[in-house]
Amino acid sequence: MSERITATGIVLMSSAVGDYDKRIVLLTRDMGRITCFARGARRQNSALLASTNPFAFGEFEMFAGRDSYTIVKATIKEYFRELSIDPDLASYGFYFLEIANYYTRENLDGSDMIKLVYVSLKALLSEKLDFILVRRIFELKAMQLNGEYPVIRDDMPYLEATKYAMNYVINSRIEKLYTFTVLPDVLEEMGSIIDTFMSKHIDRNFNSLSMLHLQIDEDNV
Q1: pTM of this structure
Q2: What tens digit of pLDDT does each residue of 43-52 get?
Q3: For labelling alongside 211, which of 49, 64, 139, 219 has CA 20 to 30 A away?
Q4: What is the CATH number of the domain that holds 151?
Q5: For the chain, where are the E strands, in sequence order?
Q6: Neighbours of 220 (CB within 10 A)
Q7: 90 and 74: one domain?
């Protein structure tokens, strides 16, 4: 049997396999995005039942196989259970996970993306921040971490506050992202710029984003 590996990570996706097992996509700091199996994790008495759900963040112990890993133990530091209670929070949270899944790869350093997802989920739980602002900050910083993002120059015909806010996100450390608010017209302009850029440079439709738009439409009825 191979050597046991311990990795810090967050569960991006989880699906049922067979009668009682789970297949999960785990974003780790050192190994990037990896596929793992958790044997018996769907049994009600399994110690891995909750720790292999999306959003679970902590330490995962596993054995390496040819094409995947087998999780044998998990010590979870944060479950983000609030996200499963509020439909709005859940919609945004799953969107963040799907973006992280899109941008990450196996054997590439995933530490910055994990940090971004973690602080962004925490920001969603803050009563001081608008969900839409958290989304826009997350999208822009995720693009910047990937090395492809809208460049905002001083001579562009945008509101000064918009240019300042977007450049702040691009140039700031992840820990300092969620420290400001903006007026509605600035938030709307940020969203327009980001949506246009993403539509040109991302070759995928995100299912969670469709659900998010549906949830927003229902809230506005």
Answers
A1: 0.92
A2: 999 999 999 9
A3: 49
A4: 1.20.1440.120
A5: 4-17, 21-28, 32-38, 57-64, 69-78
A6: 6
A7: no
